[in-house]
Write a structure and sequence with these properties.
Blueprint: E1 2-5, H1 12-24, E2 39-44, H2 45-72, H3 85-93, E3 100-106, E4 114-119, H4 126-140, H5 150-162, E5 169-174, H6 182-196, E6 200-205, E7 210-211, E8 216-217, E9 226-230, H7 233-236, H8 242-245, E10 253-255, H9 260-263, H10 268-275, E11 298-299, E12 302-312, E13 318-328, E14 336-340, E15 342-345
Parallel strand pairs: 2-15, 5-6, 5-9, 9-10
Antiparallel strand pairs: 1-2, 3-4, 3-12, 7-8, 11-12, 12-13, 13-14
Helix pairs in contact: 1-6, 2-10, 5-6
Length: about 350
């Protein structure tokens, strides 16, 4: 694993701005503002295989941890309100469909990849990972490779979800109060992948969703049967309509599903260590003390985490689909500042 200098494309800022415009259907110049192509990361094929294996292993451990919480009713540790617990239980027991997630990994190319954070509900930098870095590769290094099957896997994942839906219209909601409009670009991209899977898509801001006394409706008063929301469950359960969203009588399919609440909680990491002590892909953690995580690895003086994507396959299983590299101005990802592309050497 290396970080090497790379000559930016002529007019690259306009290229990135145009890519944002395609999905946002509006000029949002700051939406992909963390993209940086003045350098790139280089992975070997063996490093890709190590990341792929660790990603799928960790995703499996996280799903198993969620099942443990449900089976043992450890709701309080995860901050799940009593009224929400039955819905989370139903969501997991029914195998409610899930499209994607993203794991931030501590990886220096030598030690085993280790989990920093799971983003199971509203993961960052999807468009940069799936689209921007792929076109960068095609335009600057067409003879080289990249570990990036994210777009194709998303379309496949939507195909699998579509087979479980009676009504084939997806409402895609996002928060329009985010000033850079990154969420608007991301929801527009996800809507496009759903269209490519044959679904009808209706994007709308979350605040445009209403309640008619029996079900959620869109701004035209039409019922919402399936809603893909770029809006975290941890916010929803604390808002006035949260109980309606999780009511057993509410005929709506939410993506991501309610059981992702469990993987969004900081309590996940102590539980993972409790259930898998000494696991090579985990950092030690306990509920009564901070996690023992060293500073991020540095390359050319830049702190970096590998963001590894999990996308559902044709039968609904979460599988590793590709990576991006997110650099931070701090020794943790709290200072996330740049997204850099990557190549794979054979």
């Amino acid at each position: 694993m290396q970080r090497i200098a790379s000559a930016p494309r002529a007019g690259w800022q306009d290229t990135i701005r145009e890519q944002a415009l395609v999905y946002a259907e509006a000029d949002v110049p700051r939406a992909l503002g963390r993209w940086d192509e003045s350098a790139c990361y280089v992975l070997t094929l063996s490093e890709v295989r190590a990341l792929e294996a660790a990603t799928e292993e960790l995703h499996g451990l996280c799903v198993a941890a969620a099942r443990h919480v449900v089976t043992n009713a450890r709701w309080a540790e995860f901050g799940i309100p009593d009224w929400a617990a039955p819905a989370v239980r139903r969501s997991l027991a029914s195998g409610a469909p899930s499209l994607y997630g993203c794991l931030d990994l501590w990886y220096d190319g030598t030690s085993p990849p280790k989990l920093l954070e799971y983003h199971p509900d509203t993961p960052p930098a999807l468009v940069e990972a799936a689209i921007c870095q792929w076109y960068w590769l095609e335009q600057t290094r067409p003879d080289e490779d990249q570990w990036n099957q994210i777009h194709e896997r998303l379309v496949t994942g939507w195909h699998a979800i579509a087979t479980r839906l009676g009504e084939k219209t997806i409402h895609c909601g996002w928060s329009d109060v985010e000033p850079a409009d990154a969420d608007r670009v991301m929801i527009g991209y996800l809507a496009e992948t759903a269209r490519q899977a044959g679904l009808t898509v209706h994007p709308l801001p979350m605040r445009a969703i209403g309640w008619d006394g029996a079900r959620f409706v869109d701004e035209q008063g039409e019922p919402i049967f399936t809603c893909f929301k770029l809006y975290p469950w941890s916010w929803m359960v604390r808002e006035p309509y949260g109980a309606f969203a999780l009511a057993e009588t509410n005929p709506i399919t939410w993506l991501e599903p309610a059981w992702k609440l469990l993987l969004s909680s900081p309590a996940l990491y102590p539980l993972l260590w409790e259930l898998n002590p000494g696991h090579p892909n985990l950092w030690p953690a306990a509920a009564d003390r901070p996690r023992e995580v060293p500073p991020l690895p540095t390359f050319d003086g830049q702190s970096v985490a590998v963001s590894s994507w999990v996308v559902s396959d044709a039968v609904g299983r979460g599988r590793a689909a590709g990576v991006g590299f997110r650099e931070s101005t701090a020794p943790t990802m709290a200072g996330y500042a740049r997204f850099l592309p990557h190549v794979v050497t054979r």
